[in-house]
Amino acid sequence: MEISSFISKFEESIEGLTPGSVDEETKFQDLEQWDSLAVLTTIAMADAEFEVELSANEILACATIRELSELVAKKRG
Amino acid sequence: MSDFDLTGKTILVTGATSGIGLAICRAVQRMGGGVVATGRDRERLDEVGRGLTAERFRSLAADLVEPASRDAMAAELPKLDGIVHGAGALALSPSGFLSASKLRALEAINYEAPVLLTSTLVKSGTLKPGGSVVFITSIAGLFGAKGHILYSGSKGALAAAGRSLAIELASKRIRVNSLAPGMVRSGMAGEAAGKLGDEAMAAHEREYPLGFGSAEDVAGPAVFLVSDAAKWITGTTLVCDGGFTAR
Ligand SMILES: NC(=O)c1ccc[n+]([C@@H]2O[C@H](COP(=O)([O-])OP(=O)(O)OC[C@H]3O[C@@H](n4cnc5c(N)ncnc54)[C@H](OP(=O)(O)O)[C@@H]3O)[C@@H](O)[C@H]2O)c1
Description:
The complex is a heterodimer of chains A (77) and B (247). Chain A is mostly helical and 77 residues long. Chain A has a single domain (3-15, 23-76), classed as ACP-like (Non-ribosomal Peptide Synthetase Peptidyl Carrier Protein, Chain A), CATH 1.10.1200.10. In chain A, 56% of the residues lie in helices and 0% in strands. Chain A is globular, with a radius of gyration of 11 Å. Chain A starts with a helix and ends with a helix. With 247 residues, chain B is α/β, with parallel strands linked by helices. Chain B has one domain: Rossmann fold (3-Layer(aba) Sandwich). In chain B, helix 1 crosses helix 8 (215-226), helix 4 (100-123) runs parallel beside helix 5 and helix 6 (187-196) crosses helix 7. The longest helix of chain B is centred in the middle third of the chain and has 24 residues, at 100-123. Classes of the chains: A mainly alpha (77), B alpha/beta (247). Chains A and B meet through helix 2 and helix 3 of A and helix 6 and helix 7 of B. NADP nicotinamide-adenine-dinucleotide phosphate (NAP) is lined by residues 15-21, 39-41, 44, 63-65, 86-89, 109, 136, 138, 181, 183-184, 186-189 of chain B.
């Protein structure tokens, strides 16, 4: 899994994010668009696009987009 | 004898193997009633039985979304004075990630199963005239919440069907009501926590004047609705949410 493909899926799914607004170092929990629905959306996106089951606590334990992407990649095996 | 007493009454409880359904089985027995418990898992049903008075307990395993299994269970039932439909499932998904299969799977257990099982048991006369039907819905069926589209739809549909059933079955003095809990610490709350995170759940609980509920907190109102104390109540929804939606 390329980190770039994870970033584009993340940008596509979170309401209000535009392409190019996020990079590997983005602290996604500080984004203005980040809220409880964004957590649910990230879970649903990881399931639909990468067939990975994430929990909210796992997502919230990540600081950057890179960490989140690595978590998905690791769970994908 | 008090109108609240259930002595001599037999109540079918679906979703009896966990959380709210299990607490309702215990409460029915505490009020003197007999329980027929159902769920998919034979072992879990036996475990439920070990915690209850054997003479007033029976269990039948069935998968309520499989028509053949549901009908086979229905055919085995004794005459009933009440049915509490506790079986249900949760799905949390934002609007952009819905699918026909997720929608149908949730409708199957939360809407189709309780409505069709009620129909079967009324038609066969298994549910006696004067009986009481309680659907465990949710405040999500009455109020909106992010990510709850499918769940709200299934619970709102069930409550709406219940109102029409109440009108139609009034000629048999059968009452049909919904009981709409807020967040209850149980199997399903654990699932919600998995998708919302511990911090968000703690923040959510602070919005509950009386805090989150326990399964027992829902069992009392359910027992009330099946009892004769509620004999003039039909076609309505009793909200049971620690004051969450009162604000
Ligand atoms: N907990 C809450 O915060 C909350 C809030 C509002 C409303 N509710 C509603 O209250 C009810 C009970 O919730 P809960 O938290 O106690 O749920 P739970 O612990 O997840 O238990 C669900 C029950 O449904 C049964 N079930 C599920 N699918 C079934 C199927 N296909 N056939 C037969 N039985 C099936 C399960 O039995 P087996 O797995 O043994 O088959 C289990 O006994 C649900 O309708 C739920 O929507 C819950």
